User: Fold this.
Amino acid sequence: MRVLIERFLLHIKSQLNFSRHTVRAYASDLAEFAAYAEAEGAEFPAGFDRHLMRAYMAMLQEDRKNSRNTIIRKVSSARSLIRWLIAEGKLESDPFALLRAPKKEKRLPRFLTEGEVRKLYDYNAPGAVPASKKTPLAPRDYALLTLLYSAGLRRSEVSGLNIGDVDFYSGFARVMGKGSKERLVPVGDKALEALRAYLASRPEVRAPARPLFLNARGGRLSGHGLALIIKKMARQARFARSLNPHALRHSFATHLLDHGCDLRSVQEMLGHKNLETTQIYTHVSLERLKEVYEKAHPRSPKKRGG
Assistant:
């Protein structure tokens, strides 16, 4: 089974162009699935039946460390492996058939208000950072912040950008998204200005093929390093809670819709394959609308104190 899992992982990486992050997630989930099957004494293929799959799902649900969405992801990974095994002729029938997985929790994404975004900018602007905390990398950090909010990019997309991917004249960035799908995303003037200032501060030759964002050692800034920078900037702005790059992406989408941008355009800019994925931001906007209404309307429960 472990050899077949390795072949499956190679398939989704080379044939389906899944990202490294997704392949790692599949590898982790399927290693757990294989370990469970081995512990249960289930031999492949005879032991991979409906009873094993039902018991595996029950085990996941009994583990309190697993959220409902985590359970769904792990079951989905196992289902994908089973479908591939059937396609490869290794299994005759689907042992997951007629088994119902739990429904996905609908969580509204966390985003910043426009006031919080201004606060994040104001406290981290090059002129606002105290001399004791200012580093040679301050222009990079500010450019990173402005680009994340201006273009709504994933941290992996920002990490993968080269200097030549940003067209400073047209105001667009060429981004490699999920599934190796390329798209053009508009970048605002403030972000372009911050990027120019950052690039001007770099001593080395700024060739188009060089990474747009560098770490302290001069190599490409990783997604993990990018996340640490955003956390540091949130602390600098005295945010009570931690902040991750994806919250800026959520804020980008929510604020565009709040100001009248159409859903299809937001979908294109975010690089979502399905419109349903983008529609969650309409729910976010409606929640905000309801909150504003309850605070402002004279007959709302909050105004009446009950």
In short: The first helix runs from residue 2 to 14. Strands lie at 166-167, 172-176, 182-186. The two ends are 60 Å apart (CA to CA).
